Structure prediction request, 373 residues.
Amino acid sequence: MAKAEGFDVVGITSPDAIQTAPANLKAFLQAGNHGTMNWLAETAKRRGNPRMLWRKVRSIALFGLNYGPQGDPLATLADQQAATISVYARNRDYHDVIKGALKRIGSRFAAQAGPKAGAGIKVFVDTAPVMEKPLAAAAGLGWQGKHTNLVSRQLGSWLFLGAMFTTADLPVDEPETDHCGSCRACLDICPTDAFPAPYQIDARRCISYLTIEHKGPIERALRPLMGNRIFGCDDCLAVCPWNKYAQAAAEVKLQARDDLMAPRLADLARLDDAGFRKLFSGSPIKRIGRNRFIRNVLIAIGNSAEPELIGAIRSHLGDPDPLVRGAAVWALSRLAEPAAFGRQAQAHAGGENDAGVAGEWAAGLAAGPGEAL
Ligand code: B12
Ligand code: SF4
Ligand code: SF4
Prediction:
């Protein structure tokens, strides 16, 4: 049933299988590693214990869908005029793809089990308070690697997860064991040093968090480390040696759109709200909205070392949103000659009424060319 709906792997576990997860989640939250993702803290009790989310649950089926890239997912990192969009966001929103498939499986399962068996079901993908990775490891789909994501011996790192809770008693699968060994490739490649220890992440430093979840200005010290990654990051996933078993996604909706493989930064910087919505209709990128997206593009432009991209920055110096204006000032400070930056500061900084943006002008004036952090 799961294969017919496009899933690559499925396993069953018990709601009591993730005994250490609540304490680990608590340690993660106490360290502040969730940043501004308050929803993780607010739902911690239910998240750590599936029975608190649904009292009647007796078994949990975990589903994995392969979204493997066709070529090297990190190839565009060296292209300074282009943006890198993480593999998962190069086409349709996986939430929609998986949720639809899970609902169809759930209805068929409930119908087959019959009302007498009392097989109630609920399906979850990503956004519900469910710890999908520990549950998937318990169901034998893979193990949580040192980068904290689930790695599969059959498919490597490129696996979306979804869960079906049911009131039916199902035979459980064996959990998968850890196959990281002495490898630490994912820890060493992380551009922002986001792993305080193996198997632990500080989301506040993760480029995926910074570009997707974080709503305000990005910490100045982290901006230069982001390179041209404008939505998500795949570095720690891509270097995993278990990807030698990875296959390209079979699901057409998850295969990269040509225009999102290496979009030009100058083109992206030109997008107004309508253009943004049109380009990213049906894409997970649409969720962050035009202004946060332009913030990310401007940071990538600031990291490009390409003075010819200055033209793509200028119009944003007067953007109504301080988030965009501040990022534009920073990008300009990285690319413009000091005299040219000084002229722009004279034209704009005096009339600036946002303290954060005024601070960006001041920091740009204080730093030498290309030194702005
Ligand atoms: C919040 C979140 C994020 C946050 C935080 C990431 C994280 N590792 O938690 C951010 C925005 C950074 C993020 C990024 C990404 N995400 Co995300 N994310 C989630 C989400 C919604 C919740 C994860 C969660 O519960 N985190 C809380 C921590 C505590 O849980 P944990 O990671 O399982 O932690 C375990 C261990 O690390 C350890 N641990 C953690 N902290 C500590 C502290 C101590 C002291 C100890 C001892 C242990 C310990 O114990 C925990 C339990 O086993 C899930 C969907 C879901 N509902 O599960 C998707 C999910 C994990 N994300 C996913 C993806 C694809 C990504 C990205 C690859 C996207 C991208 N390309 O940019 C990156 C990968 C970054 C990375 N290395 O993790 C997929 C992963 C699929 C897979 N194969 O594992 C998921 C499952 C979504 C899905 N349905 O497919 N994500
Ligand atoms: S996704 Fe990127 S920034 Fe985040 S932990 Fe992995 S390598 Fe580091
Ligand atoms: S890169 Fe190495 S350490 Fe990281 S998850 Fe893969 S096998 Fe484990």
